[in-house]
Amino acid sequence: xxxxxxxxxxxxxxxxxxxxxxxxxxxxxxxxxxxxxxxxxxxxxxxxxxxxxxxxxxxxxxxxxxxxxxxxxxxxxxxxxxxxxxxxxxxxxxxxxxxxxxxxxxxxxxxxxxxxxxxxxxxxxxxxxxxxxxxxxxxxxxxxxxxxxxxxxxxxxxxxxxxxxxxxxxxxxxxxxxxxxxxxxxxxxxxxxxxxxxxxxxxxxxxxxxxxxxxxxxxxxxxxxxxxxxxxxxxxxxxxxxxxxxxxxxxxxxxxxxxxxxxxxxxxxxxxxxxxxxxxxxxxxxxxxxxxxxxxxxxxxxxxxxxxxxxxxxxxxxxxxxxxxxxxxxxxxxxxxxxxxxxxxxxxxxxxxxxxxxxxxxxxxxxxxxx
Length: 371
Ligand code: SAH
Ligand code: SF4
Fold this sequence. Notes:
Blueprint: E1 5-6, H1 12-23, H2 28-39, H3 53-59, E2 63-64, E3 69-75, E4 81-86, E5 92-99, E6 104-107, E7 111-113, E8 128-131, H4 134-147, E9 155-160, H5 170-181, E10 193-197, H6 201-210, E11 215-219, H7 225-231, H8 240-249, E12 258-264, H9 272-281, E13 287-293, H10 307-319, E14 324-326, H11 350-364
Parallel strand pairs: 1-2, 6-9, 9-10, 10-11, 11-12, 12-13, 13-14
Antiparallel strand pairs: 3-4, 4-5, 5-6, 7-8
Helix pairs in contact: 1-2, 4-5
Iron/sulfur cluster (SF4) binds at residues 114, 116-118, 121, 123-124, 164-165, 198, 339.
C-alpha cells in the first residue's frame, strides 16, 4: 500500500496521532500496538488477538516492520562484534556490540558518514552522506538483540558513538530515544543510554530542554582553541569557552554528571600543559572524564599515547577529584573501536580523505546556523 508507514519510525505519541487522524482511534490502541511489537515481538497485525477482527483488517497493510539485514559480522578476539547492517532506508552502516566483563554495550550509528570532519576520525573521512531515520537506529538495536541472543538480557547500555554526529540528526535522535525508552515498548532505562556529541552548542541547549533523562557525553579532546580547531573544525563555530559555558548551565538531576570525552593524541593534546589546563577548564562543570587512548587509523597521521602517559593522566585527574576512567579500546583487531567505523567501500584513498575533510571544514564555518 502506498501510504503505509514504517512502524519503527514512530514514537508511541506519533503512532497515537496517526491512529487518531487516520482511523479516529483512541490513544490506548497505540499502547496495544507497542506492546505487541516491542514486548511480545509480534509484528503481524493479523495476530494481534486483542484487536477486533474489523480493526485488524482496517490496520493491515498500513504498517511495515522492516528489519536491518546483516551483511557481515566480525567477532573480535575480545568478544566484541562488529555488524555491517543494511538498514531499512537502504544504507549500509556499522554497529558494534562491545563485550565487557559485566555488561554489553551496543554502539549505534546515527548517520551515514559524518560531516563534522574531525581530523583523527575515520568516519569523518567519509564526509556526510545521509541522516539515518529512527527506524534505521531502532533496527540496529533490534537486529543485535535478535542476533546476540546468547548474551541473554545481559546487554545493558546503548551509546550513540558509532558513525555520525547524533545532534546533527537531532529530531531523529529525540524520536529514537523516545522509542527505545518507552515503558510500553522496549523500556530501556534512559540511564543506560548515552548520546555523544562533538559539541554543537544550540543542539545541546535544545537537548537539555527535551529532558529525556539520557546521559550526554561531549568530545572535548583539547584544552586550547588553536589545537581544538586544528583537530575539530566545529570548534570555529563553538569554541571551548562557549561550549563549556553551555555545559555549566546544563541541567542535571541529582547525582548525574556529564561525560567529558578526551581522545588522547600523542604530542597533540596530551602535553603537560593540557593536563594542567583540563582540571581548570572543568572546574565548575558537573562531570566525569573519559580518557580515550587514540585508536590509530592508517593515513590520518595521529599516534596513540604511551600507556604510561594514559596512566599518568588518569592518576593526576583522579587526584584532583575529577572522576576519571579510561576507555581501552575493544575490537581493535576488527577495526570496531571508537572512531574506526567506516563503510568499507569508503576505505578511502588519501586524496578523497583530504577532499572530504576540506569540505567538512568549509561547511563547519557555517555551523553556527545548525538547529
Ligand atoms: N560524533 C560523536 C559520536 C561519535 S564519535 C562525537 O564525536 O562525539 C565517538 C567518540 O569517538 C568521540 O569521543 C570521538 O572523539 C572518538 N573518536 C573518534 N575517532 C577516534 C579514534 N580513532 N580513536 C579513539 N577515539 C576516537
Ligand atoms: Fe563525526 Fe564524531 Fe567522527 Fe567527529 S569524531 S568526525 S563528530 S563521528
